[in-house]
Amino acid sequence: MDKIERLKIFCLVAEKQSFAQAAVQLGLPRSNVTYAIQSLEKEYEVLLFYRTTRKVALTHEGNLFYEEAIRLVVQLKELNRFKTHVRSQEGKISIGMPKRLATQVLIPNLLTFYQRYPKVKVLINGSDDFSNLIEQQLDCVVRVGQVQDEYLLIRPIKPATIWTLASPHYLAELGEPKNLDELPQHFAVDYHVAKHYRELSELEFRDQRVKIPYRLLVENTEAYIQAGLAGIGIIQIPEFDAKSYVEQGQLQRLFTDIPALELPVSILLTDRQYRPKYFQDFIDWLDDLLKRKL
Q1: Fewer CB near the last or first residue (10 Å), C or N of the chain?
Q2: Residue 144 is inside which H or E element, if any?
Q3: Which residues pair with 140 in a beta bridge?
């Protein structure tokens, strides 16, 4: 195991705060992960982690070591791209993005990109959870929400307006709320990627949040939307996703007189000056696509 591999393992353990989780993700025995960390500590004569039976945490020196290690890992990842096919129109692009953006916006329009680059493979990591560009070795990530990451380039697209919606069946059952004060008498569909249980759900608007009871908790956007369509509760989804349901009469928009929440949409990239032309063209094409569809 060379030093670069050991540094990659160290970065993953630091991010996961777990030797076991890092071993599972890498498909390695835990002993290999332990050896990698111990050899780095021995070589640099520094304690990188505080270890207990329940938790792993970076020491102060470990935090400083991580900042330098992650820079090196990213730089070496970019160097490994510099092969003959990078200069041609053949290669691959791995992108992380929310599942509904992938299925409703990117995939239906990919053929237009393939007309220009038929030999480029696009690998989509469509997940409701945040995709981690560094940890998952992705080329770019589309993020909905605030972004703070000093190691990445942030390319802002435009805000996504969040609509509040309910099905005709739900409104026939419980009536349409005329103002936010009536929401405690209604139900939301609660949504958490990690199935985090809480007593009340929340509906978010630009200037306020309102706690509201719920009858169902789901962990992905497909189930969330289907629950709204089925009349189980009020949901909030981006305008690009909601518009077709509203036009077809499957959902009705609520509280149109109250300023809606807006979430920034951004493309995240590693900070490098030289990129294959097919990749740079893909980013420009995706930027334009998202601006039009959002």
Answers
A1: N
A2: strand 140-144
A3: 95, 269
Q: Which CATH class is domain 84-144+271-293?
A: alpha beta
**Does the predicted model carry a pTM greater than 0.85?**
no
Amino acid at 194: A
* Nearest residue to 167 via CA among 99, 98, 224: 224
CATH fold of 3-80 reads Arc Repressor Mutant, subunit A (1.10.10)
Architecture field, domain 161-262: 3-Layer(aba) Sandwich (3.40)
Tokens 């990109």 correspond to what residue? 113
What the block records as the tokens of 2 is 């060379």
Radius of gyration of the chain (CA): 23
Tokens read off for 221: 């956007």
Residue type, 106: L
Q: Are 195 and 217 in contact, with CB atoms under 8 Å apart? A: yes
Q: Quick one: tokens of 94?
A: 């791995």
